[in-house]
Description:
Strand content: under 5%
Largest sheet: none
Number of strands: 0
Radius of gyration: 24 Å
Shape: elongated
Distance between the termini: 45 Å
Helix content: 55-70%
Order of helices and strands: HHH
Mean pLDDT: 85
Number of helices: 3
Structural class: mainly alpha
Low-confidence stretches: none
Amino acid sequence: MAEKKQKLPTDSNQRAKSIVEMATNEEPTEPTTEKNPAAVELGRLGGLKGGKARAKALTPEQRRDIAKAAAAARWGPKPKR
């Protein structure tokens, strides 16, 4: 069976890296996606506090204005592209 042609990335830097890997017969390397557990925990902690703290700091009128703007952005006319 014929080999499938490898699709090259559209980003010029990634494309160059792929070409070098093909020319040197190296296996493509996958980027590591490990996250720092301490940073993840801090982000989660801030996320748990954020919305409640912001809602407590806003007046009912401010919350109403924010909600109206969000509804208009979601349900209003879409911008033309």
